[in-house]
Amino acid sequence: MAGEVEVRGFALMLAVKVLYAMYLGWLIVPERLLHRIGITYYPSKYWALAGSAWLTLAVVWGFWLYEGLNMATIPQISHRRQLEDDKCKSPESVGVQGFSHSTAKSVPPLCHIPASHVTQTLFGHHPCDDE
């Protein structure tokens, strides 16, 4: 037997399809034919295009607002929080002796790798050697 979620999802899908068909009917059918059928109370056809345009603009503005708020809440690139956070584990706390030696386990435990070690591994020198 279908669960409650499936039934509600199916009903919502049907409702959306019916509303979309009504929207297209209101948009495409000429006004005199709507009057002949007996439908006389409906919004202006202007809103068929304007409503869609406003909805599209609202979605785009929403994406920009979301991205702007995310950009405003992140720390600057030079901030220490960009490298490690409160949940960061040091290698010593999880039992990693060093990063150069292989471990007996196939996958070492998850821990923070210092930026100086990453730079030394990738570029072959310590970042302070340039000074």
Automatic annotation (TrEMBL):
Q: How does it sit in the membrane?
A: Multi-pass membrane protein
Occurrences of domain PIG-P (ranges): 5-123
Q: Which InterPro entries match?
A: GPI_Anchor_Biosynth, PIG-P
Q: Which Pfam families match?
A: PIG-P
Q: Which UniProt keywords apply?
A: Membrane, Transmembrane, Transmembrane helix
- Chief location bin: membrane
PANTHER family reported in the protein's UniProt record: PHOSPHATIDYLINOSITOL N-ACETYLGLUCOSAMINYLTRANSFERASE SUBUNIT P (PTHR46346)
- Kindly provide the name given to this protein in its UniProt entry: PIG-P domain-containing protein
Q: What is a single cellular component term in the Gene Ontology annotation?
A: endoplasmic reticulum
According to the record, the segments passing through the membrane are: 7-26, 46-66
Q: Where in the cell is it found?
A: Membrane
Please name the GO terms of the biological process aspect recorded for this protein, alphabetically.
Answer: GPI anchor biosynthetic process
